[in-house]
Amino acid sequence: MGQASWVLAVVDSVDGVAVVWWVNLGRGLGMSRLSGAWVLDTDELRRKLPALIATRIVLATEAGQSALNDWDVRRGPVVDATATLAAVVAVRDELQAGYERKSTAKNGRSLVPPRWPTLLEPLDVERAAVPAGDDRASRVLAIARWFVWLCEAWDGVEQQRRARPYLRFLGGETARLLPVVVVAGSSQPTVPT
Q: Are the C-beta atoms of 67 and 58 separated by less than 8 Å?
């Protein structure tokens, strides 16, 4: 799937019009986190929609999934937002436990506690909404922003981990990518190099 596979395509459909918003979940892909948005009228749907989600990981609302099914658009791996958030929480908790173990060791020095970023509430894909330039993009923009905030929180977790030599062994020297979890039965995204 290559580097494009670390781009999340959020898909919705409003009044028969497909709406897609891309979110860069990786780093170093030469694009900002919110990296593209499309409101596709019916004439454009069959032509552009497949290309907009090809090689991407996907998160679709019920209406978005229905549109993909109706237009017979093949999709890639499907992101599980709840499980991805849980994976971030689990890593943060593991790192906190590593700090607590090290700080209670009798080594005579005090450790500065990590300052973990505040994590988000779970995403409600069907009820998410924020003001958007086009009202039809309200839900996909809210979902896209949630993922941007999750990526920023994850980057904060990784920054705290990498700043502490005693935590670096829990993941290595380099910053890791967001631990994206996909729905069972869909393929895993390819990690960009």
A: no
